[in-house]
């Protein structure tokens, strides 16, 4: 399959990856265009997840992450970011599924698990035999998760008892395991646990009536005296600092996904502008429409440049929390502007699902908030700038 650069990649950032990575990127693009795009609007409208696509989705090698037990890190972080963008430019919900499965859930086990835990779970998750979820956010604890977790873990010999609740947990209505983060009642530190979702006392209830990422099956989780063996505690998760190591990786991926959402809305607006006629000519020939499209492309290009650099720093081993935080906060803010301008360029049709911009417009609101609000990411960056924490 020959490589065809995206017209929306105005400065040619895709040229930075290897020929092998370009081939893989084209496989992802082909899958998303031919298999996901034709059906996703219907799933979005019904708020249902396309379960039948999971196996083929994972077999297409759409993974943004590689793990030694499954697939070594043979691909660059820039490539993995471009894959996240490529998925989100067609559908942010499928990109989110992969972000939870192979970013948050597998990432937690890879970063914080023992060698035995990695060998046991990662191959099964990579194949789709086991679906994972990531339970950090709670009904009363989102931005203050570092200090405010209310879910508790109490050790009793060779097992732990978990009590509490989680909210907004993606994949949770159909996951086989969920990584639950809870506060140890003995030392007050946050620890991670691989919890089987068929465990007595574990329930997951779908959150209904969402206006964004509707195919994503977010859930409220309740944990009532859920017993977890010590062997299922993440061996290297001893404080929230370890949780943050996972978020550092996935936060940059969310920035990439937000670029994809921007690109998807922009491309829909460009196609529409070339076809829609007003005052006797396509609206693409109107100055104000060209101005909107140029502003969209400017946001996309600036955001892509930031994502490329933060991914290069990840490969170099120099990326820090503030780098991924700045990318996530900046790119999602620019995404919000971009999808608004794209919808505006389409007039009233911009709110109709058939024209696609409406889906990107709505989904942007979720990406703007999850894995750290703009304000929280600004404070992470602000701490790096000033040397002073201002979180409370």
UniProtKB/TrEMBL annotation:
Coiled coil: none annotated. Keywords: FAD, Flavoprotein, Oxidoreductase. Residues 133-226 form the Acyl-CoA oxidase/dehydrogenase middle domain. Its cofactor is FAD. Residues 20-129 form the Acyl-CoA dehydrogenase/oxidase N-terminal domain. One of its GO terms (molecular function) is flavin adenine dinucleotide binding. The keyword Oxidoreductase applies. GO terms for biological process: fatty acid beta-oxidation. PROSITE patterns: ACYL_COA_DH_2. It comes from the Bacteria. InterPro entries: ACX4-like, Acyl-CoA_DH_CS, Acyl-CoA_Oxase/DH_mid-dom, Acyl-CoA_Oxase/DH_mid-dom_sf, AcylCo_DH-like_C, AcylCo_DH/oxidase_C, AcylCoA_DH/ox_N, AcylCoA_DH/ox_N_sf. Belongs to the acyl-CoA dehydrogenase family. This is Acyl-CoA dehydrogenase.
């Amino acid at each position: 399959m020959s490589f065809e650069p995206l017209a929306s990649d105005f400065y040619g950032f895709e040229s930075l990856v290897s020929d092998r990575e370009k081939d893989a990127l084209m496989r992802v693009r082909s899958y998303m265009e031919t298999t996901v795009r034709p059906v996703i609007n219907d799933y979005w409208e019904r708020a249902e997840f396309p379960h039948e696509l999971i196996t083929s989705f994972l077999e297409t090698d759409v993974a943004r992450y590689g793990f030694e037990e499954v697939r070594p890190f043979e691909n660059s972080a820039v490539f993995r970011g471009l894959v996240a963008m490529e998925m989100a430019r067609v559908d942010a919900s499928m990109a989110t599924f992969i972000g939870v499965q192979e970013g948050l859930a597998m990432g937690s086990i890879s970063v914080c698990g023992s060698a035995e835990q990695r060998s046991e779970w990662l191959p099964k998750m990579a194949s789709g035999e086991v679906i994972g979820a990531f339970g950090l956010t709670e009904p009363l604890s989102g931005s203050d998760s570092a200090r405010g977790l209310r879910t508790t873990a109490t050790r009793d010999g060779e097992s732990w008892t978990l009590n509490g609740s989680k909210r907004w947990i993606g994949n949770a209505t159909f996951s086989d395991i969920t990584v639950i983060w809870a506060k140890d009642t003995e030392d007050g530190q946050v620890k991670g646990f691989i919890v089987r979702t068929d465990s007595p006392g574990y329930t997951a209830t779908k959150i209904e009536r969402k206006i964004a990422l509707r195919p994503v099956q977010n859930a409220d989780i309740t944990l009532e005296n859920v017993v977890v063996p010590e062997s299922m505690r993440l061996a290297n998760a001893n404080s929230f600092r370890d949780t943050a190591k996972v978020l550092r990786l996935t936060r940059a991926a969310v920035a990439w996904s937000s670029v994809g959402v921007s690109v998807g809305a922009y491309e829909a607006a460009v196609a529409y502008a070339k076809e829609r006629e007003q005052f006797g000519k396509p609206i693409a020939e109107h100055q104000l429409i060209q101005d909107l499209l140029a502003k969209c492309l400017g946001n996309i290009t600036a955001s892509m440049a930031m994502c490329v650099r933060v991914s290069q720093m990840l490969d170099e081993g120099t990326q820090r929390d503030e780098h991924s935080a700045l990318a996530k906060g900046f790119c999602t803010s620019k995404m919000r502007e971009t999808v608004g301008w794209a919808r505006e360029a389409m007039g009233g049709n911009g709110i109709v699902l058939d024209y696609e911009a409406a889906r990107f417009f709505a989904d942007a609101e979720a990406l703007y908030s999850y894995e750290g609000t703009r304000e929280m990411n600004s404070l992470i960056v602000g701490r790096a700038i000033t040397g002073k924490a201002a979180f409370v």
